[in-house]
Amino acid sequence: MDRLSAIFSALSDPTRRAILARLSDGPASATRLAKPFPISQPAISRHIKVLRSAGLIAQTREGQWRRCVLKPETMAEAADWLDQYRKFWDQSLTRLDTYLTKIQTPKKGKIS
Amino acid sequence: MDRLSAIFSALSDPTRRAILARLSDGPASATRLAKPFPISQPAISRHIKVLRSAGLIAQTREGQWRRCVLKPETMAEAADWLDQYRKFWDQSLTRLDTYLTKIQTPKKGKIS
DNA sequence: GCGTTATATAATCGATTTGTTATATTCAGG
DNA sequence: CCTGAATATAACAAATCGATTATATAACGC
Question: What whole-number distance in Å separates Cα of residue B67 and Cα of residue A46?
Answer without folding.
Answer: 41
